[in-house]
């Protein structure tokens, strides 16, 4: 059962597509794409900030702070109602929360062992695989393959010199990212505004907080660590997850997944500005391939939006 939209919830609402209920105007397709891109910028700059925080709290501690702070903000802001939801609704939001927590935990364990750019490059293979599996048009496979070529080029053409455990964590994070895409879309359809996101974030925080406490202990109570962790939560969880959840109500999962191929390019930019990591000519060429694939996916989606479609769930 899909919950009816609430008229009193302070959570953000989804704007109606341009051109009326049919969504035939071109602006209707640009709206969700802009939300996805804004979410990508936010999450990657938050990830760069998280790297600077790891010496203070460790990877599990950073994840625990990020999820806890994000859950508190969303629960206070959204005030999601707990009644009136079916067992299927609750099952969906719980799986969404588990996927979210696992995605964060695995990714930060990866960047504790391998460079940020390589970790994001490996992680994005999950959404790219989803884009191929979920696609119903051959052209989307072409864009996914082009983006995949850029991803491997950004990784230097291979990953043989990287820590094998870090690579495994990054690939696991990619699988959880694909699950996040699917269950974010399903949660967005079953809960009004961002209520489902707030509940899922609480599930993720409850699951990961004991792990963070066991690893970091009293270091999590340091005021500077708490402040930086809260900033990471805002940039890497609250803003991007809300924007992406809203976008997935109007954007097919296959197109969303291909747009996620922009993440290595955004991460490289964030790494340069925040961490002082420069770009090589090879990395610049990889970014160009990824951007070309994403533009192709967006143009394909704009053409398909002449007839409104629900998000595709594999």
TrEMBL record:
Domain EamA stretches: 165-296
Main subcellular location: membrane
Compartment(s) of residence: Membrane
Transmembrane segments: 59-78, 90-108, 114-134, 141-160, 166-185, 197-214, 226-243, 255-275, 281-298
Topology with respect to the bilayer: Multi-pass membrane protein
GO cellular component, one term: membrane
UniProt-listed SUPFAM superfamilies: Multidrug resistance efflux transporter EmrE
Comp. bias intervals (Low complexity): 1-11
PANTHER family hit by this protein: EAMA DOMAIN-CONTAINING PROTEIN, INNER MEMBRANE TRANSPORTER
Protein family membership: Belongs to the EamA transporter family.
Protein known as: Membrane protein
Source species of the chain: Streptomyces capoamus
